[in-house]
Structure prediction request, 246 residues.
Amino acid sequence: MDKPPLLTPDEIDTAVAERMKKQAVKAKGRKGARRQRSESEAAPADAVRRRQTDILMDAVMAAELFHTVDGDGYADIDIDGHRETWPIRSRGFRHWLSQRFFEDTGGAPGSEALHAALNALEAKARFKGPEREVFIRVGELDGRVYLDLCDTLWRAVEIGAQGWRIVDRPSIRFCRTKTMRPLPVPERGGSIESLRPLLNISGDEDGDDDFVLTVSWELACLRAALIPSAPSAASRGRRSRPAHRC
Prediction:
């Protein structure tokens, strides 16, 4: 029986090279097929994310976006006829935005779509919105002091030289922390003298002076809430204190 002819070293190298080339072509084909499948699968997912982001952005069309002196983005949103002010990065705003998405679609937005929408809204508030101050509990504007009642209607007490009144939409913006609680709604016809029996003050003339001093101190505490104890370079010279991050 004839034996197969022996290959020379050069022929062996050529055969090995050809085989490796064929294997590389097959591997490249398999890799390209996997990439095409991956791209075809990713395309619908990207389309869904973009559509969800568009729906979220449309839901905020009615909101008024603005920023503080520090560049933090905020949104005024209308809820059941009253105005609420929320930082764009706050949990409260994200819940409101997710609720609007649910009302429109019956589902929940994906985390990537929500994150993309928040980034876009933050940029829009910072670069397109006006600059405003935001206060916590107490603020001042044009000689009037505003006290946030922290109720569900977001009302405030406006206090001026002519008296006080409850306003549904104060001229300044308040934001709230999760530890804040509502204040009693003030009523007319009272007297500061109702406070005196609750204080350890005598009933003589010295007690009268002490009572005046105590009332003055309480009013000063309210006023002190408007004055920064250590103003930053950005807020130095301002008469009122912007809110800390809510």
Q: What stands out?
A: The beta strands are 64-67, 73-79, 82-87, 134-135, 138-141, 144-148, 156-160, 163-167, 173-174. The helical segments are 9-59, 91-105, 111-127, 205-224.
